[in-house]
Design a protein that fits this description.
Blueprint lengths: L2 E5 L8 H4 L4 E5 L10 H7 L5 E4 L7 H7 L5 E4 L9 H6 L3 E3 L6 H16 L2 H9 L28 E5 L3 H14 L3 E5 L6 H13 L5 E4 L2 H7 L2 E4 L13 H6 L5 E4 L8 H9 L5 E4 L18 H4 L2 E3 L8 H19 L15
Parallel strand pairs: 1-2, 1-3, 3-4, 4-5, 6-7, 6-9, 7-8, 9-10, 10-11, 11-12
Helix pairs in contact: 2-3, 5-7
Bound molecules: glyoxylic acid.
Glyoxylic acid (GLV) binds next to loops.
Length: 355
């Protein structure tokens, strides 16, 4: 009997890696190119599957595992995050889990730097000067709309860049900032659950980046107080929920900029709106928000002009470049194939940590 693989998401041309195998029955959510997979479709079609392909929008929990039945061997997600997957449950059933770290590191790091620049320059406000037809009335005086600067210059004060979570993506942001922006002072808090390998890499960084004069692990208090630019690159889940809350934001500098490319749940949106409105911090660039995708003009960070002008929001697109998404899709397909074939995935989670 053919093994069944259920694909809930768009894999682009990489789907053919699955469909070209005539020993597989590949069932694809028919509208995967344009829409997210409805839960009901997943629950109905996953029955009898050996492999399941999802994106971070599909929760893989007890209900899905029960609907799949005992033959499920592999779950492969097209994401680096895995907080949508019940890992202890899958570990207890010996189901392999594939994900897509590394290949998206550069794209997300690019996006984080973009958000830092957009938030510091308040592009929501400045572009609206043009789009609301107000440029001709705008009084161009030397300090009008001037902003904190990310790059360090010979005449600027030392810039401290902070990282909440210091894994691969944070380190890729740091590479961009030290080489391209002259940042020399960096602080970080280790990511909860960081694998030892990631932290060893952090120690090596100083040797690799001659411009980096200082790289210090600090507590949350110092991270808040000292960061001129703070990059949140921590994973979601209970351990990191609302680490950036009102008391953290109150300790930050009025010229500081917060960027979140990790998970929305790490930052308390209501506290952030208050921080922006009352000027505890300068600006925020958000690729993720805790209430996503239910974020519209009525959202606490977008409803009031004093907040919206200081806040750039992008709908969770950090890794969305042509090259990166294609490679993520390839890896996702290879992972599920390896899993259903009983081989080790090219990029699988070590579930020993969740057993
Ligand atoms: O958020 C996106 C991902 O986890 O890849």
């Amino acid at each position: 009997m053919k093994k069944k693989i259920v694909v809930c998401t768009d894999l682009g041309p990489a789907l053919s890696l699955l469909t070209l195998r005539d020993d597989l029955d590949v069932v694809v959510w028919p509208d995967a190119v344009d829409t997210e997979c409805p839960r009901a479709w997943l629950l109905k079609n996953v029955q009898g599957a050996s492999g399941l392909v999802v994106c971070f929008k599909e929760r893989v929990d007890g209900e899905v595992i029960k609907a799949a039945g005992p033959g499920l061997r592999a779950v492969s997600t097209i994401s680096v995050g895995y907080d949508h997957i019940d890992l202890p449950l899958l570990a207890s059933r010996n189901i392999q889990v594939g994900y897509t770290p590394d290949v998206l590191t550069d794209a997300v790091a690019d996006s984080a730097v973009m958000l830092a620049l957009m938030a510091s320059r308040r592009t929501n406000l400045t572009t609206s000067v043009v789009t609301s037809n107000a440029w001709s009335a705008f009084q161009w005086t030397p300090f009008a709309l001037s902003a904190p600067q990310l790059s360090t210059t010979p005449f600027s004060a030392k810039r401290t860049v902070g990282f909440l979570g210091f894994g691969r993506i944070a380190q890729a942001v740091l590479r961009r900032l030290t080489f391209g922006f002259g940042v020399s002072d960096t602080i970080y808090t280790p990511r909860p659950e960081a694998p030892p390998q990631v932290m060893r890499d952090a120690e090596l960084l100083r040797g690799l980046m001659p411009n980096l004069h200082s790289l210090r692990a600090v507590d949350m208090h110092t991270l808040a107080a000292d960061s001129d630019f703070l990059f949140v690159l921590a994973p979601g889940g209970e351990a990191t929920r609302h680490l950036i809350d009102e008391s953290f934001l109150r300790r930050m500098k009025p010229t500081s900029v917060l960027v979140n490319n990790g998970r929305g749940s790490v930052v308390d949106s209501t506290a952030l709106a208050k921080a922006l409105k009352e000027g505890w911090i300068w600006g925020a660039g958000l690729d993720v928000i805790e209430e996503e995708p239910h974020v519209g003009v009525g959202h606490v960070l977008l409803a009031e002009p004093e907040v919206r002008e200081k806040c750039v929001v992008v709908p969770h697109l950090g890794s969305a470049t042509h090259d990166t998404r294609a490679e993520m899709a390839r890896l996702t397909a290879v992972n599920v194939l390896r899993g259903v074939d009983g081989e080790q995935m090219e990029s699988g989670l070590d579930l020993g940590r969740w057993q």
